[in-house]
Write a structure and sequence with these properties.
The chain is an alpha+beta fold and 388 residues long. It is built from ten helices and 16 strands. Strands 1, 3, 4, 5, 6, 7, 8, 9, 10, 11, 14, 15 and 16 form a 13-stranded mixed β-sheet that branches. It has a three-stranded antiparallel β-sheet with strand order 2-12-13, covered by helices on one side. The protein is globular. The model has no long low-confidence stretch (mean pLDDT 97). The structure holds ligand 80O.
Length: 388
């Protein structure tokens, strides 16, 4: 089974005890100890670095993912990350051009495998020092090439490329359970278009519920209700960055945002990222929220082929209650024609899930650290990091 591979990696075993203090698992190494050449691929395959400024590379990555990336447990939906979204998510400040690692068929140059890393400055357990590490995402192998053991090679190769940059830890999430989650978050959905969600079997009608009743239950106002609410723009970054970092300090795992990070991650992009601030009378920013756009292909449905889903991203609140901020996020998501608004039970999100009519999803999102043994298991409420 695939834990054979994970037993060779610097990650805790499932039943390992917790140490007094957190720290690296592997022996401390230096970049010069790391092999210079890429790991071997099976015959007929070759490595490539994707450049998402190149339309052809972007098209190939989009196609690989839309056909082969993560599906829900019942194989009814598959993530459909847009090209614009991928460019946004994978070109943050400080990105390395060899951290977008692709595998091509040598003969046809067809992209059949991919894994990405982006640089993050992590704060763990309220410690002073920032740990520079990589956030790993989009591990994908073409469905026809599964069990060729390509995923372990992709993981070892991205690790090598990260180690060469003198970084030794990684953060990643997965729906699947592998050794060893630092925390297990639950996901929740808030219906925005209940009729469509029922038609596509994303949701179901309760026994004594009618469609009319359900549509009334989830109805939202046409306009937002918070005075001073307006879209975020890049000029707000120098103010928002310190306020967001201040908010995140309460959590035991989070990425410390630079002003440049805030400009990149939160500058609104249609159908990618939506960000809003609340500005008081005297032009002070008091609150912030954001959500990202991640549609899913509806696999083999006669009437609908795409589920438009919004996902809660980062927020902070110093004057407006969090539930009012997210209530307005719901109003805006509905206004932008999203069908559902998703959130995890991390950060302080449990404060709004019930009141805003979120229902639990049927799965979990596991959070992982690579080459870092924590002194404790985190509750989801200790997590301050949202991955796309
Ligand atoms: C509705 O379409 C889906 C298509 C594929 C998988 C899933 C279930 C699932 N695995 N959902 C999540 O992982 C999830 C649920 C709520 C919030 N964020 C999430 O994942 C994010 C963060 C991790 N990378 C994927 C997107 C649903």
């Amino acid at each position: 089974n695939q834990w054979q591979f994970w037993n060779t990696q610097p990650v805790p075993k499932m039943d390992d005890p917790f140490p007094e203090t957190s720290g690296p698992i592997d022996v401390i190494k230096k970049p010069e100890d790391i092999q210079k050449d890429p790991y071997n691929l099976p015959a007929g395959f070759e490595w490539c670095n994707l450049n998402l400024k190149n339309q052809d590379d972007l098209d190939q990555l989009y196609t690989l993912l839309v056909e082969n990336y993560v599906e829900d447990d019942d194989n009814m939906f598959r993530f459909d990350y847009s090209r614009e979204f991928l460019r946004w998510a994978l070109s943050p400040p400080g990105q390395y051009e060899d951290w977008l690692a692709g595998v091509r068929v040598t003969k046809t140059k067809k992209l059949v495998g991919f894994i990405s890393g982006i640089p993050v400055h992590m704060i763990l357990q309220k410690k002073e020092e920032v740990i520079k590490m990589t956030e790993i995402n989009f591990l994908c192998v073409n469905k026809k090439l599964r069990s060729k053991r390509l995923a372990p090679v992709l993981i070892k190769e991205i690790t090598r490329r990260v180690n060469i940059k003198n970084m030794w830890q990684a953060v990643y999430t997965a729906g699947v359970l592998i050794p060893k989650p630092i925390s297990i978050a639950q996901y929740f959905h808030r219906s925005l278009n209940p009729k469509k969600l029922i038609e596509i079997n994303f949701s179901s009608l309760g026994k004594n519920q009618t469609m009319a009743r359900v549509q009334k239950l989830y109805k939202l106002p046409e306009e937002t209700t918070i005075k001073g609410l307006r879209p975020f723009n890049k000029k707000d970054a120098p103010t928002v960055a310190p306020m967001l970092n201040k908010y995140l300090e309460q959590f035991d795992l989070y990425h410390k945002f630079s002003v440049e990070d805030v400009k990149h991650y939160f500058a609104p992009v249609d159908n990618v990222i939506y960000s809003y601030v609340v500005e008081s009378e005297d032009k002070k920013i008091t609150d912030f929220f954001s959500f990202y756009c991640l549609p899913s292909t509806i696999i083999n449905h006669p009437k609908h082929n795409q589920l438009r889903a919004a996902y809660s991203y980062y927020h902070f609140s110093t004057a407006t209650p969090l539930k009012d901020l997210i209530y307005n996020a719901l109003i805006l998501a509905k206004k932008y024609d999203f069908d559902v608004f998703n959130a995890l039970n991390l950060m302080e999100n449990t404060q709004f899930l019930d009141e805003l009519l979120f229902s639990p999803g049927d799965g979990n999102l596991h959070y992982y650290l690579y080459n870092w043994r924590l002194s404790e298991q985190f509750k989801p409420s200790q997590l301050g990091m949202v991955l796309v």
